Amino acid sequence: MSLDGKVAIVTGSGRGLGLAYARELARRGASVVVNDIDARATADAVAAIEASGGRAVAVTAPVGPTETAKELVSTAVAHFGRLDILVTNAGVLRDTVLWKMTDDDFDTVVDVHLRGTFTCVREAVQHMRQAGGGGRIICIGSPTGQRGTFGQTNYAAAKAGIVGMVRTWALELKRAGITANTVVPVAATAMTATVPYFAAAVRAEADGEPMPAFFRHDLGFGTAADVAGLVAFLASDAAAQVTGQVLGVGGDRLQIWTHPEAALTAYREGGWTYDALREAWPTTFDGAAQSVGERFPELPVRFQPATP
């Protein structure tokens, strides 16, 4: 699987998962525009890619504003002559429960994740459609956007919104030969390092040791490299017919998430009045009510955090 001659933009690629995506795309032959708000991180990312024989250039700017999206696309075209792949990975967290979340907490996360994805994809697609050679849009989602997570109203809204946009883009861009997919990674990152449940896995990753099989297989939790392979596949010609999908990946596990479908359909002549619902809900509907939040298997004793 080669990406020779392709050009990619990866937002939020100064470190972590984004850097893993950028390095894998470059390893497969793509020239890469890396992006971060930290100039040192972008410089180090470019240096790492070039040291491995790849080609890269940096754009140090916050994702969200249209001006950044335009700079990313113009940089790709100016330095490498084209644009074929966009990976929208940039993100921030401002976690707190609903009643304590400020307007700034909400707006900051939505601006970077949701608006940043929108502005970057819009700018990339305008170029791709005009160039006429198709393209690949790969947007990074989260299990939180699929099932919700306590304390992440802003992040859940943004990540769920990304999935909705991607489904729409898959329809709108099909005729132009541009695919759009969402990747839902589950991996050891700075965002998961503070979660006690993942402590043993994160520690193994930091120490350069193999991640325990419980995390890789039972939980589907792995390393950034485990996610990068899927990103590279979706960027390639081999995935030309894959579009509009939400693909979960982590450790040894790959998932195709279902799109929302009705879990139960019932009809009542004359419609569903308050009294009819009150009578029918316990017997007809309650059993089909959907769960919320992620469901983790019980953590084996040997991986449980030590108590003080």
TrEMBL record:
GO MF term list: oxidoreductase activity
Gene3D superfamilies, sorted: NAD(P)-binding Rossmann-like Domain
Signal peptide extent: none
Keywords assigned: Oxidoreductase
Keyword Oxidoreductase: yes
InterPro entries the record matches: KR_dom, NAD(P)-bd_dom_sf, Peroxisomal_Beta-Oxidation, Sc_DH/Rdtase_CS, SDR_fam
Residue span(s) of domain Ketoreductase: 6-194
One Pfam family from the record: adh_short
SUPFAM superfamilies attached to this UniProt entry: NAD(P)-binding Rossmann-fold domains (SSF51735)
Highest taxon in the source lineage: Bacteria
Family per record: Belongs to the short-chain dehydrogenases/reductases (SDR) family.
PANTHER family the record matches: DEHYDROGENASES, SHORT CHAIN, SCP2 DOMAIN-CONTAINING PROTEIN
Protein name: 3-oxoacyl-[acyl-carrier protein] reductase
Species this chain originates from: Micromonospora matsumotoense
